[in-house]
TrEMBL record:
Organism whose genome encodes this protein: Nocardiopsis tropica
Keywords associated with the record: Oxidoreductase
Subunit field text: Homohexamer.
Span of domain Glutamate/phenylalanine/leucine/valine/L-tryptophan dehydrogenase C-terminal: 213-453
Lineage: Bacteria, Bacillati, Actinomycetota, Actinomycetes, Streptosporangiales
UniProt superkingdom: Bacteria
This protein's name: Glutamate dehydrogenase
Family label: Belongs to the Glu/Leu/Phe/Val dehydrogenases family.
Molecular function GO terms recorded: glutamate dehydrogenase (NADP+) activity
Length: 455
């Protein structure tokens, strides 16, 4: 994967050296290499201005996790058959605070995927301005089609090993793909049983009755749209009256649709792995929630129940013309060809609700076309920010109203946007949110690493 030409001339030799080092050390981890490249590609100006970053090998240290835990997860299914999965926790960087990042249960999970997610989490968490480091974890376990009892047994086995590495001042996991409220409950219950402590701040995404935060379910989608609104406002525009396309139909997509509609936009399309639906009148949010959150059915059901909507099987949702695109499904879903289609159709802004959903080539197409582009580490940081707000409530043994929690989220997202904007302007690239997010997050972590010595 080459460095982009972009608007910046040349790259600091320390950047190229660090990336080549990562490729040599992690040869079979393309997602991790891609995540590292995306960040390092922006950092030459910072290294040129601050020689101490190169002198102290900050890049090499930042790209090597502080700790990588891989473990066996044995469990029995309802028929008594034994299964063995693999568990992971990559504790990447704790310079700013305890490791913080979700757990993903999905067959695609491997060490490279967890390292890519954990590396992204370092900068995402730094951008929030909060005292949290970066980490990620999960398993190649597939929860689809499994009974509640099977998932409970798996979660208990997983936490039996993982608990020894966790703590509210050490490492605080949360949910991610395949890990929702049910799984968080089973995981916390087993942690409490093993630790003999009610340590509510050790995991986030908990139920509202026992330490969870309001707005946590909505936070990633809401935050992405709030960031997009701020980005548009700074260029003299608004979401009001805009035509929006959202990929996916999971948690992030659903609450992106909800907040975009609240701000006056018309969301005309969303998707799942089977295809996409177009509803020119605007997505019926209640119907979408019923199909996806209650029935867990396919998006094709939406078109069957909504007379004016149409379903395109196996199609590309980015073929639907829009003013704002919110990729909210999975990594590398928006490629260069799709980006060119969006540009031809007049897209104004793209904001990543998922983690790294836009390929490097697509990002370059969008940026060269002058499209406002918000990288996931900035735009989808609302989820982890609200997790920290949950930890704050747990520490005070209190609970906030939905309105208070949402106001706190809005303030955090404004701060993230403004940090990105300020860093981009400071380095002579106004409006470049990729450079701004990467540099702002990097400078905060790098400064802490320098202050704390060679550890």
């Amino acid at each position: 994967m080459p460095f982009s030409d972009g608007a910046r001339s040349g790259h600091h030799p320390g950047v190229r050296s660090a990336y080549e080092h990562v490729v040599r050390r992690n040869p079979d981890e393309p997602e991790f290499q891609q995540a590292v490249l995306e960040v390092l590609d922006s950092l030459s100006p910072a290294l040129s201005r601050h020689s101490e970053y190169a002198d102290q090998r900050i890049l090499e240290r930042l790209c090597e996790p502080e700790r990588q835990v891989i473990f066996r997860v044995p469990w029995r299914d309802d028929q008594g058959n034994v299964h063995v999965n693999r568990g992971f926790r990559v504790e990447f960087n704790s310079a700013l605070g305890p490791y913080k990042g979700g757990l993903r249960f999905h067959p695609s999970v491997n060490l490279g995927v967890i390292k890519f997610l954990g590396f992204e989490q370092i900068f995402k968490n730094a951008l929030t301005g909060m005292s949290i480091g970066g980490g990620k974890g999960g398993s190649d376990f597939d929860p689809k089609g499994r009974s509640d009892n099977e998932i409970e047994r798996f979660c208990q086995s997983f936490m039996t090993e993982l608990h020894r590495h966790l703590g509210e001042h050490t490492d605080v996991p949360a949910g991610d793909i395949g890990v929702g409220g049910r799984e968080i409950g089973y995981l916390f219950g087993q942690y409490r049983r093993l630790a003999n402590r009610w340590e509510a701040g050790v995991i986030t995404g908990k139920g509202l009755e026992w330490g969870g935060s309001r707005v946590r379910t909505e936070a990633t989608g809401y935050g992405n749209v709030l960031f997009t609104q701020r980005m548009l406002e700074r260029s003299g525009r608004s979401l009001d009256g805009r035509r929006v396309v959202v990929s996916g139909s999971g948690n992030v997509a659903i609450y992106s649709v909800e907040k975009a509609q609240q701000l006056g936009a018309t969301v005309v399309a969303c998707s799942d792995s089977g295809g996409y639906v177009v509803d020119e009148k605007g997505i019926d949010l209640d119907l979408l929630k019923q199909i996806k959150e209650v029935e867990r059915a396919r998006i094709s059901e939406y078109a069957e129940r909504r007379g004016d909507a149409r379903y395109v099987e196996g199609g590309n949702v980015w073929d639907v013309p829009c003013d704002v695109a919110l990729p909210s499904a999975t990594q590398n879903e928006l490629d260069a060809a799709s980006a060119r289609t969006l540009v031809r159709n007049g897209v104004l802004a793209v904001a990543e609700g998922a983690n790294m959903p836009t390929t490097p080539e697509a990002v370059q197409v969008l940026r060269e076309a002058g499209v406002l582009f918000a990288p996931g580490k900035a735009a989808n940081a609302g989820g982890v920010a609200t997790s920290v707000l949950e930890m704050r409530q747990n520490a005070r043994r209190t609970s906030w109203s939905f309105e208070h929690a949402e106001a706190e989220l809005a303030e955090v997202m404004t701060g993230i946007h403004d940090r990105c904007e300020e860093a981009a302007e400071r380095y002579g690239a106004p409006g470049d949110y990729v450079l701004g997010a990467n540099v702002a997050g990097f400078e905060r972590v790098a400064g802490a690493m320098l202050d704390q010595g060679l550890i």
